[in-house]
Design a protein that fits this description.
173 residues; mainly alpha; 73% helix
Length: 173
């Protein structure tokens, strides 16, 4: 009973989205959940059916008593067949091992991303304010800007393309 309540309380869609599982992992997990649900439904359906046979009822209903005697003999001789489920258990263990592997890989990937985000956050917190930056700092951070300015100066271009359209002409003449 407690396991049914636990399964009902789990929000699998949230788990799929927050853990960042791969598509094949999610598909395998959903297929496994579907098979589990089907097996539970079949088990509850068969458990609710009666397991005893009222042979006296059949003796009174049928004219041919030999058939009822033969059925009774077969029921008494019936032995439950046991199946070797080691192959199924092994398949489940293999699936579980793959799922654990992928979960560990996902956890490692999340840890790496978390470390990168922590480093980025620390970098942002330690960064100087925009007002304190110099042209040299910007040039050192992005050398392409310095190269673009140098080529513009060599060609004699003293205005930035698109500046007048964006900010207007500030000249007094």
């Amino acid at each position: 009973m407690a396991s049914k309540a636990a399964v009902a309380a789990v929000d699998f869609t949230r788990i799929y989205s927050t853990l960042g599982l791969g598509k094949d992992t999610i598909a395998a997990l959903q297929a496994f959940r579907k098979r589990h649900g089907d097996a539970q439904r079949m088990q509850s359906q068969y458990a609710s059916q009666p397991t005893t046979v009222d042979l006296a009822h059949y003796r009174s209903t049928l004219k041919n008593k030999a058939i009822v005697d033969e059925a009774e003999k077969l029921l008494k001789e019936f032995k439950v067949v046991t199946y070797d489920v080691t192959a199924h258990v092994k398949a489940i263990e293999t699936f579980e091992a793959k799922a654990v592997e992928k979960a560990q890989a996902t956890a490692a990937q999340i840890d790496v991303e978390l470390e990168e985000l922590q480093a980025t956050l620390a970098n942002i917190e330690e960064a100087r304010p925009f007002e304190d930056l110099t042209v040299e700092d910007v040039g050192n951070a992005h050398p392409r800007i310095l190269e673009a300015v140098e080529t513009m100066v060599k060609k004699g271009k003293w205005t930035v393309p698109g500046y007048k359209e964006k900010f207007g002409d500030l000249s007094l003449m």
